[in-house]
């Protein structure tokens, strides 16, 4: 436990990212106005991208910003602005006591996982350091691409099929039924 | 590496709290995205720990599925809003026994 605290305190970039993502995540689950929640989610996403960079995953960091921040979050904001919710349409929230009880359960879940993770010796030992030339290419486009298009070719094709189906489904669901021109 | 796993667990727990305790469907969807992102952090951390990029490929799959899910979820919310004029999950009671 003390090693964990010392590890976090000695790593200002990680601490900054963790604080920003914590603030963003709490904004998402606490605020009533959905636009504020979307902004908190954006802060969390960007701090996750920085953490990916720190974990030698530059391709994933770029993909994260493009897909999550650049597409999913923008889609959320489109829908929020399109719905243009008044206070009445926004609805009520659960009473404070219910939310506090759920909060306690979520804290218990987090405590359990964090406790088990902190005991693990392999995690504490940390990752092996990369040599200078390895660090340039590791987790980059070629590395992930070689893995994705040789070994994981089938999941890749299935994901593209899934996305096409999702697009079709979204168009069908959200399409407005116009009266037929008789 | 422990700190990354702990951060991932924190994000997952906060997302779970939001998904259960909020009534606004949009914010429930955002909380589910937060949970998925927590898992992504853990996957990337373990990929770095074990020294292969299988974790990265898994994260790409998770990102693809999350994008598809958000697209469909938001389309559903729009279709729902058109008839019900509310995004309050508590108002959706038609299937209740």
Structural key phrases:
heterodimer, A: 182 residues, mainly alpha, 80% helix, B: 97 residues, elongated
Describe this structure in words.
The complex is a heterodimer of chains A (182) and B (97). Chain A is globular. Chain A is mostly helical and 182 residues long. The model of chain A has no long low-confidence stretch (mean pLDDT 89). Chain A has helices at 2-9, 12-30, 34-54, 58-83, 87-90, 96-119, 121-125, 132-137, 141-150, 153-174. The termini of chain A are far apart. Chain A is 80% helix and 0% strand. Chain A has ten helices and no strands. Chain B is built from three helices and no strands. Chain B has helices spanning 2-21, 25-50, 54-84. Helices cover 79% and strands 0% of the residues of chain B. In chain B, helix 1 (2-21) packs antiparallel against helix 2 (25-50). Chain B is mainly α. At the A-B interface, helix 1, helix 2, helix 3, helix 4 and helix 6 of A face helix 1, helix 2 and helix 3 of B.
Helices and strands in order:
The complex is a heterodimer of chains A (182) and B (97).
Chain A: H1 2-9, H2 12-30, H3 34-54, H4 58-83, H5 87-90, H6 96-119, H7 121-125, H8 132-137, H9 141-150, H10 153-174
Helix pairs in contact in A: 2-3, 3-4
Chain B: H1 2-21, H2 25-50, H3 54-84
Helix pairs in contact in B: 1-2, 2-3
For the terminal residues of chain A, how far apart are their CA atoms?
A: 73 Å
* Strand elements of chain A, count: 0
Class derived from helix and strand content of chain B: mainly alpha
Query: Into which percentage range does the β-strand content of chain A fall?
Result: under 5%
